[in-house]
Amino acid sequence: MQSSDPILKLEGLEKVYPSGQRALSNIHLTVERGELFALLGPNGAGKTTLIGAVSGLVRKTAGKIWVDGIDIDHSPLLAKRKIGLVPQELHTDMFETVWDTVSLSRGLFGLRRDDATVERVLSELSLLDKRKAKIMTLSGGMKRRVLIAKALVHEPALLFLDEPTAGVDVELRRDMWKLVERLRQSGVTIVLTTHYIEEAETMADRVGIIQGGELMLVEEKSTLMHKLGRREFWVELNSPLSELPETLKELGAQTALEGTRLVFPLESGSEKVFELVRELDRHKIIPRDVLTKQSSLEDIFLDLVSGKTAAKSPTKSERGA
Q1: pLDDT-based confidence at 319, cuts 50/70/90?
Q2: pLDDT at residue 307 tops 70
Q3: Which of 14, 143, 191, 274 has a Cα at 20 to 30 A from 151?
Q4: Cβ-count burial 137-154 (b if 16+ within 10 Å, e if not)
Q5: pTM for the structure as a whole
Q6: Once rounded to an integer, what is the mean pLDDT over residues 295-313?
Q7: Has domain 230-294 been given CATH number 3.30.70?
Q8: CA geometry: angle at 47 spanning 41 and 303, to 5°?
Q9: From start to end of the chain, where are the E strands?
Q10: Residue extent(s) of CATH 3.30.70 domains in the chain
Q11: 3-state secondary structure of 9
């Protein structure tokens, strides 16, 4: 594999269960080396199924998967060695020590014992002083770190983080974000699924949105927010309007918060803000405050999955961009 080639490539990936339920439908996707790709979607959208299909935990119905250039149908064990998986739930012996459970994970991939690598991984995850502690004695945040250590100890090229901060408090979540950023800086390619869209907005290079097993959209985060994000001009009023003047309606203004806020779309042209201000003065509407609002990635996501914003299927060039 050349360094310019994608670390992950999916072509026509599908998963249909015997019941007839279609969990994945014709998924085409490439993930580039060194990037952090965030896969967003509601519960049951297919995020975990997709990860399971790539990592060998779910048997795909159709399609092709390459990991670091390796066809998983031809060389499944070799492909699995390239993958680290941090699942949502902790699956390990609660009576084992941190050192033993991480060392065992390396052996499961057919690799020789390497205490130096285990020590390095534990040190990077601030777990070295807990190496003799039993898993059951650790806090929730530390257990998450053990999961990541287990996924990294065989030195994978691609790391899947499936809801890594689910069930942890805000402080631990931010610590995990810093940890993920350090992993990315070290060269690990990361695919992140999350319900916390703030995570994707903070860390991701590209975003994919999946719903009902279909990949609705794949785009660079900054491009996505530019193309689909809304900019609005908000006018906070001292008292509610009983009726919105027609001239303000013509400028695109709408009322909110029981008439105490005027919302004006800036997409129609910033020069029209001056027209809005003049109309406010003409109608003797006195603002208490004015501000601009840029929609967040969460706003875009909610609009897409609710159908408020049309999303076209990603083209081949967009999937590989």
Answers
A1: very low
A2: no
A3: 14
A4: ebeebbbbbbbbbbbbbb
A5: 0.72
A6: 61
A7: yes
A8: 10
A9: 8-16, 22-31, 36-40, 62-67, 70-71, 83-86, 158-162, 189-193, 206-211, 214-220, 231-237, 254-256, 261-265, 287-294
A10: 230-294
A11: strand
Highest mean pLDDT among 90-99, 197-206, 306-315: 90-99
Given a contact cutoff of 8 angstroms between Cβ atoms, the answer to whether 140 and 121 are in contact is: no
Q: What is the mean pLDDT of residues 46-50?
A: 92
Mean pLDDT, range 146-162, rounded to an integer: 91
Q: What is the DSSP string of 253-279?
A: -EEETTTTEEEEEGGG-TTHHHHHHHH
- CATH 3.40.50.300 spans which residues of the chain? 8-82+156-226+302-320
| Residue 250 predicted with pLDDT over 80 | no
CB 172 within 8 Å of CB 196: no
What distance in Å separates the CA atoms of residue 234 and residue 265, rounded to the nearest whole number?
Answer: 9
Superfamily (CATH) of domain 8-82+156-226+302-320: P-loop containing nucleotide triphosphate hydrolases (3.40.50.300)
CA distances from 219 to 39, 95, 226, 310 (A): 11, 44, 11, 14
Tokens 């390619």 — which residue? 189
Angle at which helices 98-108 and 140-152 cross, to 10°: 30
Rg (CA), the chain: 24
Nearest in space to 238 (alpha carbons), one of 297, 298, 290? 290
pLDDT band at 316 (very low <50, low <70, confident <90, very high): very low
Tell me which of 160 and 258 has the higher pLDDT: 160
Residues 6+ apart with CB under 8 A from 4: none
DSSP alpha helix (H) spans, 167-210 = 170-185, 197-203
Q: Residue 310 pLDDT more than 60?
A: no
